[in-house]
Amino acid sequence: MSRDDHVQLEGKVILVAAGGNFRIRTESGHEILAQLAGRMRRNRIRVVLGDRVTVAVSPYDPNRGLIVYRAK
């Protein structure tokens, strides 16, 4: 699936789980299980509890996504 097909959502990290997984609560109240995108891992960008992030979510599975940006 190409990057253009994903839906971008804003949210906040509410749980840091094992294995590089994060639980994100979007502004609409929906919870998403997300992982760091490869570019964020490669550049060693740290995501901690309480960070504002942008999550790319597939339209086929709206419960999982990739963290593509961490707000400052």
Attribute tags:
single chain; 72 residues; mainly beta; OB fold (Dihydrolipoamide Acetyltransferase, E2P); 1 helix; 5 strands; globular
Q: Could you provide a short overview of the structure?
A:
With 72 residues, the protein is mainly beta. The protein is built from one helix and five strands, in the order βββαββ.
- From the alpha carbons, calculate the radius of gyration and give it in angstroms: 11 Å
Q: Judging by the overall fold, what is the CATH architecture?
A: Beta Barrel
Structural class by sheet pairing and helices:
mainly beta
* Level-1 CATH class name: Mainly Beta
> Could you list the spans in which at least 5 consecutive residues all have pLDDT below 50?
none
What is the typical, i.e. mean, pLDDT? Answer: 92
Quick one: how many beta strands?
A: 5
Q: How do the helices and strands follow one another from N- to C-terminus?
A: EEEHEE
Beta-strand content: over 45%
CATH superfamily: Nucleic acid-binding proteins
CATH topology: OB fold (Dihydrolipoamide Acetyltransferase, E2P)
